Amino acid sequence: MTHSNRTLMERDIVTCHGLELDVQIGFHDIELNRKQTVSIDLTIETDFRVGPDRDHHEGLADYYVIANLLEKHVADRKYDLVEALAVDIARVVLRANPTVRVRVRVNKRPLDMPRVRVVGVECVRSAEDFADEVVSCPPIRA
Fold first, then answer.
1. How are strands ordered across the β-sheet holding 119-126?
2. What mean pLDDT comes out for the span 26-34?
3. What was the pLDDT predicted at 142?
4. Neighbours of 38 (CB within 10 A)
5. What is the DSSP letter of 13?
6. Band of the pLDDT at 10, cuts 50, 70, 90?
7. 47 forms bridges with which residues in the sheet?
8. Dihedral angle sign, alpha carbons of residues 119, 63, 37, 135
């Protein structure tokens, strides 16, 4: 079976759960101009046969690099919506790893809803989803 003939169930998975990022997010009065800690869960579908299964770094979806890229990326950005943050995180992961598919889950405690512990959104994206975007800078590297 060739790499391109692998089905979703045959993909290899890299996960990173509970990555905490401080982000200026929200549009309600109580959230304006405040950073909030969000929790990010990533599930990255990849192919270990490209190198990692032989203990080689080629083709590696390096969660250490990804976590650092995301922390730097969101540091000075502002998001109104959790959904926009999730898609932007997917975009960053895929610019650094264009051959993977990523599932991004973002959880946050809503400041304006004291009876709700966590709200969350989830998106799944591949590089094809961003193919029409103009990239004004080179691909992201650690």
1. 78-79, 12-25, 35-46, 101-108, 119-126
2. 92
3. 43
4. 23
5. E
6. low
7. none
8. negative
Nearest Cα to Cα of residue 15 among 46, 50, 44? 44
Going by the DSSP 8-state scheme, the letter that residue 83 receives in this structure is H
Contact 58, 51 (CB under 8 A): yes
For domain 3-130, the CATH architecture is 2-Layer Sandwich (3.30)
**d(Cα 70, Cα 130) in Å, to the nearest integer?**
17
Residue owning tokens 């959790």: 82
Cβ atoms of 87 and 125 closer than 8 Å: yes
Q: Cα–Cα distance between 132 and 134 in angstroms, integer?
A: 6
Locate tokens 């080689």: which residue?
Answer: 56
**Beta pairing partners, 14:** 44
pLDDT digits (tens, 9 = 90+) for 115-141: 999 999 999 999 999 999 865 444 444
| pLDDT reading at 15 higher than 60 | yes
